[in-house]
Amino acid sequence: MTTIFPKDFLWGGAVAANQVEGAYLKDGKGLTTVDLLSTGEKRFPMMFGEIENYTPDKKEFYPSHEAIDFYHRYKEDIALFAEMGLKSFRLSISWARIFPNGDDNQPNEAGLQFFDNVFDELIKYGIEPVVTLAHFDIPVHLVKEYGSWKNRKVVDFFEKYAKTVFTRYKDKVKYWLTFNEINMLLHLPYVEAGLIFKEGEDKQQVMYQAAHHQLVASALAVKAGHEIIPGAQIGCMLAAGMTYPYACNPDDVQKAMDQDRESFFFIDVQSRGKYPGYAKRFFEENNIELKIAAGDEELLKENTVDYIGFSYYSSRTTSTDPDILKNHTAGNVFDSITNPYLEASEWGWTIDPKGFRITANQLNDRYQKPLFVVENGLGAIDQFGQDKEINDEYRIAYLREHIKQMEEALKDGVEIIGYTSWGPIDIVSASTGEMKKRYGYIYVDRDNQGNGTLNRSKKKSFHWYKQVIESNGENIE
Predict the structure, then answer these.
(1) Which residues are catalytic?
(2) CB-count exposure of residue 340 (10 Å: 0-12, 13-18, 19+)
(3) What pTM does this model have?
């Protein structure tokens, strides 16, 4: 069968700075929010914004502090990516490497030079960088001194940061994303936006005001990027996966639509340039009063994104039946009940390849803009076999079925410009901080406690993905 994927389709892999780099205070980098997330019992309360803390505890283990040491091993890793044939590599810039405190007058040259080196290495192998400006790490100083995205001043700091990196890398990076999984602000507010809630604060008011500030900052970044970089493609990013009604009861259908709209709200603003009517109704009914500055609405309207980036791992299911609601899936940040028609991963994430096609069509119908699949993958426990290799057929099977459904979406007429699976190399889990929850085609010798040589080795999926890319999606068996 002849492949339907475009000739210039951007096959690749995706990571985040805080999950791979390590070197957490090296060469002038400032402390970030992720650097305060230990593997201990405080991790999830902190991620929900329930604990105020600004310094690491020497008694705790912090996975981001060393991660997989990409900071020192990027040449080795990029060489492996090139051997696999990656056409693109999605990574993020750590804001605190460029502006250690977030509000510094001058950028940190050592941090700028590091990303210059990484981009040069990618370009050497013909790998297109796809760069996220904010991927779940915020300078701690901004949280402590300003309340992070609660404060309008952070919009200005972000704009300065965006303009600095656009200017520095304008000849090296064409594809950009503003905020990673921006809708996660409503689910993990500290992780996505550095929010810590004070006693008595109206959490919804705080989160949606912070969301407005991020949406304004995103529009300012789009504006600056288009002015500074000729031909720049600047996208937004959604943690996607449609919500199914458990039954054809109209109440279930309404609830599923409302849950999807919680996420679509962000992308509606970034892609369509205005607050949707359903959001205005929600604000009114929940006594949420946004402080919208003069000129904000025009800014949002005039600086919409060029493409929609999205992650897809699983679909969700909801119900209005109290008995059905008792049957919840485990381990997923998004509230979901078990779908009886689908299997789940070792971490309780529903495996739904067809949902990938449905979600892509849903986004295409809604926005009529190019889509970029910037995350998709399977977290699993990998074991070496007797041949001292990892035979990760389960990962290959997951990815194969999702790529097949992506091809079906292309046949449906959906425009998809690339697919960067998560993550091409084993990295620290963003949610749990674990290493045993592995996604990579490349194994990294490191355990949950930080022990190991950090040596890299190829899994069976490495060779499989290489043939997928070589055949431009034709040979996926």
Answers:
(1) 375
(2) exposed
(3) 0.96
